[in-house]
Amino acid sequence: MNRFFTARALHADTVIDLEPAIQKHAIQVLRLSEGDQLELVGPEALPHLATILTAAPLRVQVGAALTRRTELPVAVHLICGIPKGEKAELIVQKATELGAAAISFFNSQWATAKWAPNRVVKKLERFQAIAQGAAEQSHRSVVPSIDVVTLNEMTKLHADARLIAYEESAKAGETAALVAAMARRPQSLIAVFGPEGGLSPVEVSTLQSAGYVPVGLGPRILRTETAPLYLLSAVSVLSELQGD
Ligand code: SAM
């Protein structure tokens, strides 16, 4: 079933008109029509079933709230060194599917890619739209927020677990820190990733002084766009999947 995020308040057994952008997507692109059902997520982040009453305007009867939980039990905030080319888009889309709560980018010392300051606002708008599409596609209840942060701001962020995905830790055989952090059942987790050139020793020591812990993500050195996706997958396995 198709899911849409709406700014309208959702209450069971009420009739509401949805925004023109949703009307266009649902009716013109997906060719839904009267009687079809869809899922809506409103400002309360609680999905509801809804039935289309009229296509233009797109008027729906709001049904019961859906109880199936799709959010990761750990609010994961990824902070990625600005990568080259279209990789930021890929990180935003895939990390949203995998459950990230927030995604930030930072101007890392060893990054070759730089974002012109006058283009950042437009970039973030595009990333936010990509995140919304991915959140709808993956049946999330929350669209992750996307922004740009500085190293100094990173040192002041709070979370139950604050990790640095560090390639040098992986090369030194570090395999326990992520599992140990997850064993403490954090409700929130920040993970920092370097760009293609990796993290500089100054960045790592600055973050360590602020309480961040370096972790290895296995013996293979992953591409800058792969490492955050690995971390989210590992968090899912360690917090959502169960054996017999
Ligand atoms: N240029 C670096 C090198 O040659 O060692 C590799 C950088 S890697 C492409 C980009 C980022 O992904 C790293 O800075 C780190 O944050 C993360 N990363 C990749 N593989 C990792 C691993 N096995 N363990 C921890 N972090 C990893």
TrEMBL record:
Span of domain Ribosomal RNA small subunit methyltransferase E methyltransferase: 71-235
Cellular component terms (Gene Ontology): cytoplasm
Any Pfam family the entry gives: Methyltrans_RNA
Source taxon at top rank:
Bacteria
**What is this enzyme's class at the first EC digit?**
transferase
Q: What is its main location?
A: cytoplasm
* Catalysed reactions, semicolon-separated: uridine(1498) in 16S rRNA + S-adenosyl-L-methionine = N(3)-methyluridine(1498) in 16S rRNA + S-adenosyl-L-homocysteine + H(+)
The Gene Ontology biological process terms listed for this entry are: rRNA base methylation
EC number, as in UniProt: 2.1.1.193
Location of this chain's protein in the cell: Cytoplasm
Q: Show the GO MF annotations.
A: rRNA (uridine-N3-)-methyltransferase activity
Family matches, as SUPFAM superfamilies: alpha/beta knot, PUA domain-like
The UniProt keywords, alphabetically, are:
Cytoplasm, Methyltransferase, rRNA processing, S-adenosyl-L-methionine, Transferase
Into which family does the record put it?
Answer: Belongs to the RNA methyltransferase RsmE family.
User: What the protein does?
Assistant: Specifically methylates the N3 position of the uracil ring of uridine 1498 (m3U1498) in 16S rRNA. Acts on the fully assembled 30S ribosomal subunit.
Q: Which PANTHER family match?
A: 16S RRNA (URACIL(1498)-N(3))-METHYLTRANSFERASE, RIBOSOMAL RNA SMALL SUBUNIT METHYLTRANSFERASE E
Which named protein is this? Ribosomal RNA small subunit methyltransferase E
Naturally occurring in which organism (per UniProt): Lacticaseibacillus camelliae DSM 22697 = JCM 13995
